[in-house]
Design goal:
Length: 185
């Protein structure tokens, strides 16, 4: 009886926490040893698989805590997903951190702690919050128009959600934040 078999060869990344691959690797190493009395164990889980599972569970717990946090709503609007945030290269700059965290720099924030008399923006269009600065403030319109042009010419829709500003348009958003002169606002 002749059977039509097709064999495919493919590359599988080694040591990537893929359980079957790790077990095959372990068994191949054991088979290569020149021992007569070998005991074969098929139910051992490689350390790399365990490490991957622990990391995955840790991220899942962190995400649940992040979603249920009482504080940090502004930061959460930019980074709703912990795993995605960890993959981003975020600049460490006072202005950028102030915008993302919602702490410092804005009159609404400073007014909460009685460091300014008035939370209103100099544009007189509302309280000077992070959302106001990014999406509304007429003083920042020239800076914002560059960001809008960049986003819309790449097929994006204005206004994007905060998390899209950092996940899809980080470089232009950094440029917008850097060009914001908080001392004049």
């Amino acid at each position: 009886m002749q059977q039509n078999w097709t064999t495919y060869f493919g590359w599988v990344k080694a040591h990537a926490g893929i359980e079957g691959n790790e077990i095959a690797h372990t068994l191949a190493k054991e088979a290569a040893l020149d021992e007569k009395d070998r005991t074969y164990v098929y139910d051992r889980i490689p350390i790399s698989t365990t490490a991957s599972r622990v990391k995955e569970e840790g991220l899942k717990n962190w995400q649940a805590q992040w979603e249920n946090a009482v504080n940090g709503a502004n930061c959460g609007s930019f980074f709703p997903n912990v795993d995605q945030r960890l993959k981003l290269r975020i600049p460490i700059a006072p202005e950028f951190t102030a915008i993302i965290s919602g702490h410092g720099k804005t009159k609404a924030y400073l007014n909460r702690f009685k460091l300014t008399d008035n939370p209103m923006c100099p544009c007189n269009e509302g309280e000077q919050s992070v959302e106001h600065l990014i999406y509304v403030c007429s003083v920042l319109e020239p800076n914002r128009s560059d960001m809008i042009k960049h986003i819309t010419t790449r097929g994006g829709i204005w206004p994007p959600k905060n998390n899209e500003l950092v996940n899809k348009y980080l470089n232009i958003f950094k440029k917008f934040v850097k060009s914001t002169d908080f001392t004049k606002l």
